[in-house]
Write a structure and sequence with these properties.
Blueprint lengths: L13 E5 L6 E5 L9 H6 L3 H5 L12 H15 L11 E2 L17 E12 L2 E3 L8 E2 L2 E2 L1 H7 L12 E7 L5 H5 L3 H7 L15 E2 L5 E2 L10 H13 L31 H12 L11 H12 L10 E2 L12 E2 L7 E3 L16 E3 L21 H6 L6 H8 L3 H11 L3
Antiparallel strand pairs: 1-2, 3-7, 4-5, 4-6, 4-8, 9-10, 11-12, 13-14
């Protein structure tokens, strides 16, 4: 499920530091990060209890009985296969949340690819919502086909950009939601004041909160993210998205949408959000000697300027989410990745800007980058541009042995 929107300020400044009395020089920040631990110490002292205790697709520990009950109810809605009689379509990409979010467990990612189209003119983003954008649904119900002869939503000729999106993993999303806006704003450096070539900016939305979900950081909360997911991916209307998608703004033919709006109840919608919120992050593997060395080389290359190893959640009434470290390897900021990866605008993000992809669970992916164009992690690194170009070039100049260690490390996440 990937979806819609709405900017400013600082990946930590990097400086060389000696590590473990070895001959490795690592890039790490020269001031405390908002987590209270700089990138170097986070790399050295990952909390093994947090990285090894969760089962794939399991709920977070320390949930109350009521929270676990709602998690279970939400998992049932998440796995529900919708039909036209229960609200599916008439335009849709999939018939259940779990049909796309499937690997390595329900709530994880997937290799399905969907199509997005928007228009970008003179710095202004138009998601073309009035004529059916930004998601171009690839399937229709039988009733819609019978009435229109269309097998999918047509592409929008008004679009200036087309983007393809693989299904992101939702594992650990609740911890990312619980990271305070202030922490992300403190990581931002839109003016590149530290002159490290990295100028990530927070996706500050119209409501003042910092977007962190979606490849373009268009949603600040899981509920906001799911609102778009239900309507764009399955054609399921909800309280926040009560109107069906149309083709070029043309009203739907009579009889093709037999289910009254909203097509998912508030209780089921909230339970689904709770299910996603309480999914535990995927545990990292215990590092081999090569992967341990690769972790330090990864930092030395400057990759942690965007792929910040850990973020910390703030105080939270839910014990499972309160003051926890999440090893997401992301700053959740928007970065300009250069023209080679540019596709659609969305929210406050320009076509070439993308939110730093979290790397937790990377080993479960079979296709890489936002559109799955890279078949391997190494190929994905080679395709990085823009603010990531310097780190990419340093990776390409590594000896084959050091490059191997970096890939071993990334393959452990």
């Amino acid at each position: 499920m990937s979806h819609r929107s709405r900017v400013t300020h600082a990946p930590p400044r990097l400086c060389p530091l000696p590590l473990l009395a070895a001959l490795i020089v690592v890039t790490a920040c020269d001031r405390e990060s908002p987590t209270g631990a700089d990138s170097l110490s986070v790399l050295l002292h990952q909390d093994s209890a947090l990285t090894t205790s969760f089962g794939l697709g399991a709920p977070l520990p320390f949930l109350s009985r009521d929270q676990r009950h709602t998690f279970t109810r939400g998992s049932i809605v998440f796995a529900t296969v919708f039909t036209p009689a229960t609200g599916l379509g008439p335009l849709f990409n999939s018939n259940s949340c779990a049909s796309c979010h499937v690997a390595p467990a329900v709530g994880g990612g997937g290799d399905s690819v969907e199509v997005h189209q928007t228009a970008f003119h003179a710095g202004v983003c138009d998601v073309l919502e009035e004529i059916g954008g930004q998601v171009i649904q690839q399937h229709v119900t039988q009733a819609f086909f019978d009435a229109t002869g269309l097998k999918k939503e047509p592409d929008l000729t008004e679009a200036t950009g087309t983007g393809r999106r693989t299904t992101p993993s939702l594992l650990g999303f609740g911890l990312l939601e619980a990271v305070p806006d202030a922490e992300l704003l403190a990581l931002a450096d839109s003016e590149d004041r530290n002159h490290n070539g990295i100028s990530g900016r927070a996706a500050v939305l119209e409501n003042g909160h910092v977007g962190r979900f979606g490849r373009k950081a268009v949603a600040a909360t899981i509920s906001d993210f799911n609102e778009g997911a239900f309507i764009y991916e399955m054609g399921i209307t909800n309280a926040a998205e009560p109107d069906e998608q149309t083709v070029h703004g043309t009203p739907l033919p009579a009889g093709v949408d037999p289910t009254a709006e909203p097509e998912v109840s508030a209780e089921d919608f909230d339970a689904t959000a709770t299910f996603v919120r309480f999914l535990s992050p995927p545990p990292a593997l215990r590092l081999s000697f090569e992967a341990e060395r690769g972790r330090f080389v990864f930092a030395r290359l400057g990759c942690v300027g965007c792929h910040v190893p850990a973020l910390k959640t703030g105080p939270n009434p839910v014990q499972a989410l309160s003051r926890r470290l999440v090893f997401a390897y992301s700053d959740l900021l928007l970065h300009d990745m250069g023209p080679g990866l540019a596709d659609v605008c969305l929210g406050v993000a320009t076509p070439s800007e993308f939110r730093t992809e979290p790397l937790m669970g990377l080993r479960f992916k079979h296709a890489f980058l936002h559109d799955g164009r890279a078949a391997t992690i190494a190929e994905a690194i080679r395709l990085h541009g823009g603010e990531a170009a310097a780190a990419r070039d340093r990776f390409l100049r590594l000896s084959s042995r050091e490059r191997f260690t970096v890939l071993k490390f990334l393959g452990s996440l």
